[in-house]
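User: Mind token order:
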Amino acid sequence: MTVENTDGLRLRARFRALYHGASPAAVRFRYGIIVIDLAIIAFFIAAPLMRRHGLTFYLIDYGVAAFLGLDLLARAVAHGDPKAWLKKPIVWVDLFVLATLLFPGWLFNFGFLRVLRLWTLIHSEFFWRTVGRRYDDTRVEQITRAASSLLTFVFVITGFVYSSFAGRHQGIAGYVDALYFTVTSLTTTGYGDVTLPGVWGKLLSMAVMLGGVSLFIGLIQSILRPHKVTFPCPCCGLRRHDPDAVHCKACGQVLNIPNDD
């Protein structure tokens, strides 16, 4: 084995330990990555308002791109199989976000899709192995995932409305107007003081109503739905059971669900 191969294996082992390990150093490392990720998401949400600052905005933009690029590269090395890693939809979302950061002048109109980083973060095992490891595969995880999907939807639609209609339609004068339109449409309140013009505006409004209501109902269901635990049945594979279940309701197999009580 050559020196290059040995160094490559050591680097992969190091990244794997940091991204997937359970040592205190690995957990601290992942907490640091998540804190930076949340700061980046805040930047994405505020980006439409910050772009007017010119040089400062682009410096932050390329700094975020550098961090995200290095993070994606490290995750690919830690995974060990780049082809399998690239098959994950979440990875492609992150790669598109990276493209909008590297080419902000050309892809700024798609910049609102950067907020999808919130969705990819909350739906990643990386997050739940770190911040949410106590709540992994619990009701808290289900509620958090549903809430993040709704929040991501709100800010993606807000960004799209802002980039497409602000300055072109008198009802949308700024980012807050776009957010106001999104929330009133999503909740089907429909005050009528801010509306989008033309056929495309009506179609977008209907899409916001249907998509937003669906996600909101999903959030309510995850809150009100009876609590289930994740425990694959060794016989039929059913994953969701009542916390005190003794037998699988699908096949009758005796279960031994771990319980802290």
Q: What stands out?
A: The CA atoms of residues 76 and 83 lie 9 Å apart.
